[in-house]
Amino acid sequence: xxxxxxxxxxWGNGVxxxxxxxxxxxxxxxxxxxxxxxxxxxxxxxxxxISRRLRETAMGADEVVDRDYCFEFYICHCCLFSHxxxxxxxxxxxKQEKIANFRPQRRNLNKHKQRGMGTLETSMxxxxxxxxxxxAADGEIIDGSARLETxxxxxxxxxxxxxxxxxKPIIMVRDDIVSADSPEAREISIAANRVAQLNLDWxxxxxxxxAQAGLDxxxxxxxxxxxxxxxxxxxxxxxxxxEWQGMPEFEQEDVFGAIATIKVHFATDxxxxxxxxxxxxxxxxxTKSIWHPKQENLDLVNYxxxxxx
Length: 309
What we know:
The protein is α+β, with helices and mostly antiparallel strands. It has helices spanning 19-25, 33-41, 44-56, 114-127, 145-154, 183-198, 204-212, 223-230, 240-243, 269-279; strands at residues 3-11, 68-76, 93-98, 134-135, 141-143, 158-163. Strand 4 (134-135) and strand 5 form a beta hairpin.
């Protein structure tokens, strides 16, 4: 598939477009250059770009009015005409459509949270729209279902749609924000990350369905993370609370017959030594308990647990 470079030129006030010469310079036949040039200038992308560039280069009355301006487009040849369905040209197609044409993801792994959805709506109302959504060709959202639902509440029904094939990154530029260091930019950056944190609630059931369908999740989760999320759904994964069901309770029998237990507090190391000498036993900081008088080691063989099953 070939592509051409179309260079458009105009004089200071933008009245004259050298569309025929531009088409010839791009490699089109002189016989068809006039009609090709006219067709190109009807394309929405080029109209918008020309209008934007004219605003950017607008001159005052005291400036030279015959200054020559130019800029370039890279155009896929087969995308010049409206009937062409090719999306792989170097010119990306931008359309204004209705948000109602798109729908949230049916099998969304994120159930979202009430606080997260509320924070997202507040952020959109205060700071405008920030992160683009991604949809499949059939209009179902792949990434951004919460943003779609919230956008339908906060904004009107118009939405800008970019059709592409994922081979090039897409950057959305907020022309109303002059610098990334401005307070508005910093707020947007913080809000975007905070909303993502507050609004994540994994749907373990859907994750299990995807895992059983053979989706490769190894690069996204390690096995311990998957086990933790799927523990309540998957038989066979270690679950101590489930394993304990039906187990007999155990109560420690006081085989020594103690009648009282007291705590003894020591102010200094010397006090510990003095106490140990007084009772005739070894006592240290690590000692947890002692018997007085001292008990002989018990033969625990006589107290082995019996199998009650």
